[in-house]
Design a protein that fits this description.
Blueprint: E1 2-6, H1 10-22, E2 26-31, H2 37-44, E3 48-52, H3 62-73, E4 78-83, H4 88-95, E5 102-106, H5 113-124, E6 128-130, H6 132-140, H7 153-163, H8 168-175, H9 179-192, H10 200-215
Parallel strand pairs: 1-2, 1-3, 3-4, 4-5, 5-6
């Protein structure tokens, strides 16, 4: 996979580039700000862009804004946003455009090359990769009665792992369940969330969005 990195911290950027190269990825370009991101994407045609949320000049949400703009113009390019802090509302803003091929990870995950590589692969293939701490934060919040009240505790557990971008086979391994049992839980989730028959991937994204938006009172 071809990767573009955007992070103004040169040591972080070069460190991530080295980790990715060691995992077999092709880092085709590196940027220290987000102003030229669209032009560089058009030039290099990457599979995935990895970008920090806080970029120059204000170091607030330039990276997030660039990621959202990128998905509008290049929906087939995966976007993995890195953040120093746990800010679930930013994950929701990124996912709000449809959720296909997007990810949000805390920078501390970068230290685990295998976990980073797995997230990049999932995002590059059109899946999602949401940091477990973001999901846990949302799970822990008290919810008013909602669509998710229809789900059993096991189905919520399955949906929580789906929100992290896990496949059915990964869910089966992590929950020590038979793959057929996992398929049954996933099918039940789709039914209870009133997700009409559509391509499997699209329904998984919609289910995750339902889950995340229910846990977050202020998506903006």
């Amino acid at each position: 996979m071809r990767i573009i990195l955007a992070d103004d911290a040169v040591l972080v950027r070069q460190g991530v580039a080295r980790l990715l190269q060691d995992e077999g990825f092709d880092v085709v370009d590196q940027l220290d700000d987000a102003s030229e991101l669209l032009a560089r994407v058009a030039l290099h045609a990457p599979d995935v862009v990895i970008i920090d949320i806080r970029m120059p000049p204000s170091h607030t949400v330039e990276g997030l804004q660039a990621a959202i703009e990128l998905k509008k113009h290049h929906p087939d390019v995966g976007v993995l946003v890195l953040s120093q802090h746990l800010e679930s509302r930013y994950a929701l803003r990124l996912l709000g455009g449809g959720g296909a091929g997007v990810g949000y990870l805390l920078k501390e995950r970068v230290a685990d090359a295998g976990e980073l590589a797995d997230a990049v692969l999932r995002v590059g293939k059109g899946g999602s990769a949401i940091d477990p701490q973001v999901v846990e934060q949302m799970v822990g919040r008290r919810r008013s009665r909602s669509t998710l009240d229809r789900l059993s505790s096991r189905e919520r557990e399955v949906l929580s792992l789906m929100a992290q971008g896990r496949s059915n086979s990964a869910l089966a391994g992590q929950l020590f369940l038979n793959p057929k049992t996992v398929e049954s839980h996933v099918a039940s989730i789709f039914t209870k969330l009133d997700l009409l028959p559509e391509p499997e991937h699209h329904r998984r994204v919609l289910a995750v969005l339902t889950y995340l938006h229910t846990g977050e009172s202020r998506p903006d």
